[in-house]
Design a protein that fits this description.
about 200 residues; MetI-like fold; 9 helices; about 70% helix; elongated
Length: about 200
């Protein structure tokens, strides 16, 4: 009986918690609303009606209306595609750029590592929101500018993690063994760059 209880307890621990299903369902709902916004609302997010400005939430307007009489719920649904595109795009750009910069900093000699590390630390000294505002002020407003600003603001975090993991694996036993057996520096470096650090940063 105790064996069955232990097995059932292990099975229960392996089962996902309800919060996981709620999170996945919410993300799926966001994806569907971004891809097919017409399924959720028939209102035009750009249609204005000054006579219906600042209405409270009701049957015709679930979230009410704004100062120009536009339906807030429709604007939220149609705007989700831009929010998701900028969020996922900026994260992907920051992830790739951060992994490359951090891995190169960990693999380079003292001078190259010092230059890249100081650049990462300078970027990390700014709050992410302030850094994004500075980038937007330099390159101008727009969706591409916002995407670039968010990516630049997040790059230092990924780069720092990638650098630390690269330094750890750079001194690992299999890298030292490869060098002892006569491998040139590029070969251990490729193993270091393509194996553990990138996987740990994911």
């Amino acid at each position: 009986m105790s064996i069955l209880s232990a097995a059932s307890a292990r099975t229960a621990r392996r089962m996902p918690v309800p919060a996981l299903f709620v999170s996945v369902g919410f993300l799926a709902l966001l994806g569907v609303s971004a891809a097919l916004p017409a399924l959720f609302t028939a209102a035009d997010p750009l249609s204005t009606d000054i006579g219906a400005a600042l209405l409270p939430p009701g049957q015709g307007h679930p979230f009410g209306t704004d100062q120009a009489g536009r339906d807030v719920f429709a604007r939220v649904v149609y705007g989700s595609r831009y929010s998701l595109a900028i969020g996922f795009g900026a994260t992907l750009i920051a992830l790739v750029a951060g992994l490359v910069i951090g891995s190169l900093a960990g693999l380079m000699r003292r001078l190259g590592d010092g230059v890249l590390s100081r650049a990462i630390e300078i970027l990390m000294s700014f709050p992410e929101f302030l850094l994004a505002l500075i980038v937007i002020a330099i390159i101008g407003p727009g969706e591409a500018s916002l995407l670039t600003a968010v990516a630049i603001a997040v790059i230092p975090a990924y780069a720092r993690v990638a650098r630390v993991q690269t330094l750890v694996v750079k001194r690992a036993g299999y890298v030292e063994a490869a060098r002892t057996l006569g491998s040139r520096p590029p070969l251990p470096c490729c193993a270091t760059l393509c194996r553990t650090p990138w996987g740990r940063c994911w």
